[in-house]
């Protein structure tokens, strides 16, 4: 939906909009019915005090109330027509005047006030010149009443000049009332309309932004699907033939190995080793994708429990190398437990891998510092030359095998573990830092927002 | 190989079939097909596999050209006799969703395809011992 269409659709307060006029007419006629009902009840209650003859007005009251109810029900049909408004107001004022006359007419001087209601009511119905027409009709009815009741008024000592003055005051008062009602009513309605328009505008803006976000989410989903099919391609079309090559080369080596010359055998072994290394890289690449792309709800994660679990898994290697591991008290953090588990097990796995047998020491510590959670894994292993401090966090980034030997042997690996660590930590809006030098051990420090970062 | 235990290997990778055959032929009568439709025809003894033996177990690749392993397994599950044949599903990737789908469809085991001969032999023999050996008869039982 285009924004301007949305604005039009969400604003019910358009000037001269038939639906809007009908709504106003419906509430005005319902209020009139209620007002007449109240008026009638008041008359009934006070009939003994003022000696009202209820029988002469009851059917007029009920007729007017029924008329208003009928008009409320059919508002959409007549409300947009200006003449209908005039006719309705005319009938209302004249019948009301007859009721007033029958209730005692100008003998009850206070009845002038009653005419205020049709005027205000007229404004509720439609804020235009019809309000003044209603006011002057009211004043005219008042004048007619004065003329009809001329004799009885003179009997109580109100002479003709005073009667004319009363009628003039009635004209003036009712016209001023119409003016005020129209002016303030107009201003209030304008204000309401302005506010409604603003709301509609903002709603349109919001729905435009929402539509944009939805489009972006869809695009992202498509990308995700694309990525998944890419990963499937890598798995199936790349890894599958490679593992078949490996199997066949291995088969050949086992079957013919003993019969081959040393050189041929070495070459065959080299094929198996190289293809195996590439297969490991594909496997770890898939692992990286799998771990980092799996949706997982965040929760409070006890880092101590993650470390304990990782150490359990690593126990065979730790025991074989005689590594001493010290774990200090660790805080908890808001995050994705499985992904953070991969962070912890990667860091600990590396530490175990790069310490020397029988001399290895690993210290795990943590704390809450300046609103972030720190987790450090320190080892006394071979250390990492500063030149590689940045590169080892990149995919397939590793220190070359000949530069890192533990116990006289190069350390194997594909260089994906720390890339997984960095990606997961950064997805948690944290950071990972490294302090290390050759021969001085390494210390990896992960910092995560204590309250979670997303 | 009359008298030997029959095994059906379903995989679209010729290299894998070649290796599996070499590894398994020492102990089993090996039959191979390259897609899910043929696998179902073989097991259901429909043409062109009308006189196929009933294998003691099946090694089934997860991703076949025409269907995936769970689809094949669901078809087998519809037939009480075929459903009893133990199936080892093998895949290139150790994905939990795939493993769960395979198990839900009736696979006895889900394993990542080994790419060394020794590991492949061990995986399949271990499966055979665990799931197929007890009830296995010679290949001509059916």
Brief digest:
The complex is a heterodimer of chains A (454) and B (142). With 454 residues, chain A is of the alpha+beta class.
Largest interface: A-B, 22 and 18 residues
Q: Classify the beta-strand content of chain A into a percent band.
A: 5-15%
Largest sheet of chain B: 5 strands, parallel
- In the sheet with the most strands of chain A, the strands line up as 2-4-5-9-8
CATH superfamily of chain B: Response regulator
| CATH architecture grouping of chain B | 3-Layer(aba) Sandwich
Q: Write down the CATH topology of chain B.
A: Rossmann fold
Count of individual domains of chain A: 3
Strand content of chain B: 15-25%
Record the strand order, biggest sheet of chain B: 2-1-3-4-5
What does the secondary structure layout of this molecule look like, with pairings?
The complex is a heterodimer of chains A (454) and B (142).
Chain A lengths: L2 H8 L7 H28 L1 H4 L3 H20 L1 H4 L3 H21 L13 H10 L4 H19 L1 H6 L4 H97 L5 H32 L5 E4 H19 L2 E4 L4 E4 L1 H18 L6 E9 L2 E8 L25 E2 L2 E2 L6 H11 L3 E6 L5 E8 L5
Parallel strand pairs in A: 2-4
Antiparallel strand pairs in A: 1-3, 4-5, 5-9, 6-7, 8-9
Helix pairs in contact in A: 1-10, 2-4, 2-7, 4-6, 6-8, 7-8, 7-10, 8-10, 10-11, 11-14, 12-13, 13-14
Chain B lengths: L4 E6 L3 H11 L3 E6 L2 H8 L13 E5 L7 H9 L2 H4 L3 E5 L4 H9 L4 E4 L4 H16 L10
Parallel strand pairs in B: 1-2, 1-3, 3-4, 4-5
Helix pairs in contact in B: 1-6, 2-3
Task: Characterize the structure shown.
The complex is a heterodimer of chains A (454) and B (142). Chain A has 14 helices and 9 strands. With 454 residues, chain A is of the alpha+beta class. In chain A, the strands form 3 sheets. Chain A has a 5-stranded mixed beta sheet, covered by helices on one side. Chain A has a two-stranded antiparallel sheet with strand order 1-3. In chain A, strands 6-7 form a two-stranded antiparallel sheet. In chain A, a hairpin with a 2-residue loop joins β6 (405-406) and β7. Chain B is of the alpha/beta class and 142 residues long. Chain B has one domain: Rossmann fold (3-Layer(aba) Sandwich). Chain B has a 5-stranded parallel beta sheet, sandwiched between helices. In chain B, β4 (87-91), α5 (96-104) and β5 (109-112) form a beta-alpha-beta unit. The longest helix of chain B has 16 residues, at 117-132. The radius of gyration of chain B is 14 Å and the shape is globular. Classes of the chains: A alpha+beta (454), B alpha/beta (142). At the A-B interface, α10 and α11 of A face α1 and α6 of B.
């Amino acid at each position: 939906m285009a924004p301007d269409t949305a604005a039009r659709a969400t604003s019910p307060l358009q000037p001269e909009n038939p639906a809007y006029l009908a709504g106003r007419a419906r509430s005005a006629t319902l209020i009139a019915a209620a007002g007449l009902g109240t008026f009638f009840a008041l008359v009934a209650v006070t009939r003994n005090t003022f000696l009202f003859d209820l029988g002469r007005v009851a059917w007029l009251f009920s007729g007017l109330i029924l008329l208003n109810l009928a008009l409320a029900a059919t508002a959409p049909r007549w409300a947009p027509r200006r003449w209908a408004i005039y006719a309705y107001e005319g009938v209302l004022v004249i019948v009301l005047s007859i009721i007033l006359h029958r209730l005692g007419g100008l003998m009850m001087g206070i009845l002038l006030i009653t005419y205020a209601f049709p005027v205000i009511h007229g404004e509720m119905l439609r804020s235009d010149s019809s309000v003044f027409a209603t006011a002057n009709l009211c004043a005219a009815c008042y004048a007619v009443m004065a003329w009809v009741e001329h004799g009885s008024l003179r009997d109580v000592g109100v002479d003709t000049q005073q009667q004319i003055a009363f009628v003039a005051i009635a004209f003036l008062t009712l016209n001023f009332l119409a003016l005020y009602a129209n002016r303030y009513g107009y201003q209030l309605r304008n204000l309401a309309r302005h506010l409604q328009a603003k709301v509609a505008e903002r709603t349109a803006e919001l729905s435009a932004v929402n539509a944009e976000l939805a489009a972006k989410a869809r695009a992202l989903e498509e990308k995700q699907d694309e990525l998944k099919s890419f990963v499937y391609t890598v798995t199936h079309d790349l890894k599958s033939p490679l593992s078949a090559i490996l199997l066949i080369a291995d088969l050949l080596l086992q079957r013919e190995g003993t019969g081959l010359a040393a050189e041929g055998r070495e070459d065959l072994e080299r094929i198996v080793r190289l293809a195996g290394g590439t297969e490991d890289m594909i496997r770890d690449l898939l692992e990286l994708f799998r771990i980092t792309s799996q949706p997982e709800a965040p929760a409070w994660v006890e880092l101590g429990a993650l470390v304990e679990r990782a150490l359990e898994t690593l126990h065979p290697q730790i025991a074989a190398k005689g590594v001493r591991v010290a774990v200090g008290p660790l805080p908890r953090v808001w995050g994705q437990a499985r992904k953070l588990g991969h962070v912890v097990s990667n860091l600990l796995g590396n530490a175990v891998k790069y310490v020397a047998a029988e001399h290895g020491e690993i210290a795990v510590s943590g704390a809450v510092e300046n609103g972030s959670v720190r987790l450090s894994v320190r080892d006394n292993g071979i250390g990492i030359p500063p030149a590689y401090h940045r590169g080892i966090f990149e995919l397939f980034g590793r220190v070359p095998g000949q530069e890192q030997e533990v116990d006289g042997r190069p350390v194997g690996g594909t260089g994906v573990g720390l890339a997984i660590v960095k990606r997961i930590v950064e997805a948690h809006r944290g950071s990972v830092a490294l302090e290390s030098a050759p021969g001085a051990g390494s210390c990896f420090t992960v910092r995560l927002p204590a309250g979670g970062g997303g | 190989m009359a008298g030997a235990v029959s095994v059906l290997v379903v995989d679209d990778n010729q290299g894998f079939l070649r290796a599996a055959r070499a590894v398994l032929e020492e102990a089993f009568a090996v039959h191979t097909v390259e897609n899910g439709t043929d696998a179902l025809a073989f097991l259901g003894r429909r043409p062109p596999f009308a006189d196929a033996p009933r294998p003691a177990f099946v090694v089934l690749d997860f991703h076949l050209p025409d269907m995936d392993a769970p689809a094949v397994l669901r078809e087998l599950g519809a037939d009480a006799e075929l459903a009893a044949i133990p199936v080892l599903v093998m895949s290139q990737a150790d994905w939990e969703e795939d493993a769960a789908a395979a198990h839900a469809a009736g696979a006895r085991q889900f394993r990542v395809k080994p790419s060394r001969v020794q590991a492949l032999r061990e995986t399949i023999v271990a499966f055979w011992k665990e799931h197929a050996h007890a009830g296995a008869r010679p290949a001509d039982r059916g």
